């Protein structure tokens, strides 16, 4: 009979109890050396470090301008790199706080840039739907939720880099020009 890995079994039982996963799924996560955490619900208050961690775990190896968020009103998936391509080169970080269809002056150009299913224009309502409120030393801001994230997030073993805060203008690095709603 093969020897059992007690460490994996212990970790799987903890994941099974704490996260509500099946024991087999939890054992697979523990065997890979990863952990699982429940993501904060919509409209939750996050510190800048937690928001940065979510971004790094959901988009491993990517710089913050490659991260993707989803508009809570219309469901459009966007990011700073798409905002830059759409002509918002001076402030691409606005993709984290506003729907691109509200910001771009030329809706026809924006519809050509985005896929056919994303050509709808977000309603010009004050509410941006589901968002996080991110707090940093310089203030707070409303940020759209990350795209592709479910209720749980599997992440690798924590490192020293996980404690670093991504310096994103308008989100974790507020300037006098950005609004803090």
How are the SSEs ordered, and which strands pair?
Blueprint: H1 6-19, H2 23-31, E1 35-38, E2 45-47, H3 48-58, E3 69-70, E4 77-78, H4 80-85, H5 100-103, H6 107-113, E5 131-136, E6 139-146, E7 152-155
Parallel strand pairs: 2-5
Antiparallel strand pairs: 1-7, 3-4, 3-6, 5-6
Helix pairs in contact: 1-2
Q: How would you describe the oligomerization state of the chains in this entry?
A: single chain
The residue ranges in which pLDDT falls below 50 over 5 or more consecutive positions are 176-181
**Overall mean confidence score, pLDDT:** 75
Count of DSSP strands: 7
- Output the radius of gyration: 19 Å
What is the CA–CA distance across the termini?
61 Å
Q: What are the secondary-structure elements, in order, as H or E?
A: HHEEHEEHHHEEE
What's the total helix number? 6
Q: How much of the sequence is in beta strands?
A: 15-25%
Largest sheet properties: 5 strands, mixed
Domain tally: 2
Strand arrangement, major sheet: 2-5-6-3-4
Structural class: alpha+beta
Overall 3D form: elongated
**Helix content range of the residues, please?**
25-40%
Record keyword descriptors for this entry.
single chain; 181 residues; alpha+beta; 2 domains; 5-stranded mixed β-sheet; two-stranded antiparallel ribbon; 6 helices; 28% helix; 16% strand; disordered C terminus
Plain-language structure description:
The protein is α+β, with helices and mostly antiparallel strands and 181 residues long. It folds into two domains: 1-33, no CATH class; 34-163, no CATH class. Helices cover 28% and strands 16% of the residues. The chain contains six helices and seven strands, in the order ααββαββαααβββ. A five-stranded mixed beta sheet has the order 2-5-6-3-4. The radius of gyration is 19 Å and the shape is elongated. The N and C termini lie far apart (61 Å).
């Amino acid at each position: 009979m093969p020897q059992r890995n007690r460490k994996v079994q212990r970790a799987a039982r903890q994941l099974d109890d704490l996260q509500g996963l099946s024991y087999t799924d939890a054992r697979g996560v523990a065997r890979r050396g990863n952990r699982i955490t429940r993501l904060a619900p919509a409209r939750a208050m996050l510190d800048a470090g937690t928001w940065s961690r979510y971004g790094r775990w959901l988009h491993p190896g990517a710089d913050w301008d490659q991260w993707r968020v989803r508009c809570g009103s219309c469901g459009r998936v966007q990011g700073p790199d798409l905002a830059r391509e759409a002509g918002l080169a001076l402030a691409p970080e606005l993709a984290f706080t506003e729907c691109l269809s509200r910001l771009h002056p030329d809706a026809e150009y924006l519809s050509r840039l985005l896929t056919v299913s994303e050509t709808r224009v977000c309603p010009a309502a004050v509410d941006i739907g589901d968002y996080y409120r991110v707090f940093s030393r310089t203030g707070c801001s409303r940020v759209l939720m990350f795209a592709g994230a479910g209720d749980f997030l599997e992440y690798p073993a924590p490192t020293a880099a996980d404690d670093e805060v991504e310096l994103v203008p308008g989100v974790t690095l507020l300037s006098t020009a950005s609004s803090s709603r």
